[in-house]
Amino acid sequence: MAALVVALDQPLPPVAGQARVSDGDSFRLGDERIRLLGMDAPELAQQCDTADGSKWTCGRSARDRMAELLSSGAVDCRPEGRDQYDRLLATCRVNDQDLGAIMVGEGLAVSSGGYWTEEAAARRDSRGIWAGSFDRPRDWRDDEARPHNALSWLGDLWP
C-alpha cells in the first residue's frame, strides 16, 4: 500500500518537442494533448466585440497566435496533472517564454490563476479582448451548453 501512495505522489515527467495547435489554450505534443494551466482563451467559435461594437473572431485570433508561438521553437512543458478529458495540465514555455503569460499579456486569454499581473496590464492597455467587450470563455461555454430555442427563457422563471 505504501508503494501505491508513493507512486501516486510522483510528479509527472516533463514533456518537450514540436507542438501542433488545437486552440488558444491547448495543443498536441506527439500523442499527448496538453491544456495550459492558469489561463483560459476564447473558444474557436467565440466572437468578441471591438470598441466600436463590431464583431471579431477572438477565438480564432487566439488559436492563430498560439500557432505562431508554437512554430517558433520546441515546447517545454511541466505537467501538474490531468483534467476530466485526460489532457495534461501544464505550464509550458517556448524559447524560454511562458506561453500562458504571453497569451494573457497580449489580451488573447484571461487568467484563471497565476497570470493576474499580465491580465491587469492587458486590461489597462486595452489589448486584445480588453479593447472591447467579451464573455469570459467559461461563461461562453456554459451559455453554449444550455438549450437555445424561442421559449428556453421560460425555464429561467421557475426554480
| Radius of gyration from the alpha-carbon trace, in angstroms | 18 Å
Ends: how far apart? 47 Å
By DSSP (H or I, 4+ residues per run), the number of helices equals 5
- Integer average pLDDT: 89
Q: What is the top-level CATH class?
A: Mainly Beta
| Helical proportion, percent range | 25-40%
Helix-strand string: HEEEEEEEHEEEHEHH
- Tell me, briefly, the overall form: globular
- What are the low-pLDDT stretches, counting only 5+ consecutive residues below 50? 1-7
> How does CATH name the architecture?
Beta Barrel
Q: Could you give the count of β-strands?
A: 11
Largest sheet: 7 strands, mixed
Structural class of the secondary structure composition? alpha+beta
**CATH fold name:** OB fold (Dihydrolipoamide Acetyltransferase, E2P)
The number of domains: 1
Percent strand equals: 25-35%
Task: Explain this structure.
The protein is of the alpha+beta class and 159 residues long. The chain has a single domain, classed as OB fold (Dihydrolipoamide Acetyltransferase, E2P). Strand 2 and strand 3 form a beta hairpin. The termini are far apart. 33% of the residues are buried. The N terminus is likely disordered.
